[in-house]
Input
Amino acid sequence: MSRLLGEIVDALGGTLYGATDTLIRRLAPLASAGAGELAFVSQPRYAHQIDTTAAEALIVPPALKDSAAARGACIVSDDPYLYFAKLTQWWRREHEATPDTGIDPLASVHATAQLGEGVSVGPFAVVSRDVRVGRGVHIGAHTVLGPGVVVGADTWLHPRVTVGARCSVGVRCLVHSGAVIGADGFGFAPHEGAWIKIEQLGAVRIGDDVEIGANTCIDRGALDDTVIEDGVKLDNLIQIGHNVRVGAHTAMAGCVGVAGSADIGAHCTVGGGAVVLGHLRLVDGVHVSAASVVTRSLLKPGHYTGMFPIDDNAAWEKNAASLKQLNRLRERLKVAEHAIEQALQNKPKS
Output
């Protein structure tokens, strides 16, 4: 579990200052890094930590080259955070064992399924009829692919993922354990005090390079498909309702809920625990703060927040009670303003 600093630079680029044979045993946070460990400093405002860290070597921006080189070995990169992200990927590839390819004897693969070269299927996985799986796909233990599912090349499905009938997942996707793609959307018609199910006849279409977190659920469409476009990143425990569209490279943090038929643009971010109500539209470049509730369409790019600030309970109750009176106070203020205007108009001119 170690690599030479020179090997890292040969693989990922950057400019090395210091010995190429410096041994790196681990990637570590800046504050706790020690001997044999590599950390990064992303911005000049963290420069003071360069003098206090015990890291063996640092990844720094050009502005911090001199101070980093004065204390020891360093790699200079225009974007240390991006460099570190790529380094973590390279480090994992270098140190983790490549999974065995082939079909585990305990897996169930239908005779009509088509599996590409280098596919691995774990124990107790189920690959149903007419499934098409691209080359290099990993299907984890207990994962279920329903009839007619398509999975693109080099996608990794962790254990216990479920992909429902006729849904598709693009290339180079990563789906974590417990995710459900293609469950029925929440569609019911009220009739005489009961709920009559509306069959969900659409599917889910996942683009390329999408990551879906653990226990996230993406419902199939009622008639048209639910669509998750290329590069979307979804955290754990997210609910995406039926017929939702999520634009390319949008990211959502844990516990977000998106109700049916919402249309979310590209390059948006939605903070943890936020809710987007159904049939609303968020244009490209909208950023929603954590715990906000989006109750109207957001048709201009920008940062939006819609939460009631936390307070001690007694003060919160008073403020909440005041909020309930706002409409009445607004009407009284309008009457008072009108009366003042009338009095001014009727005032005799001197």
Observations:
- Residues 103-304 form a domain with the UDP N-Acetylglucosamine Acyltransferase; domain 1 fold (CATH 2.160.10.10).
- The chain has three domains: 3-95, 103-304, 314-346.
- The two ends are 93 Å apart (CA to CA).
- The chain has a mean pLDDT of 96.
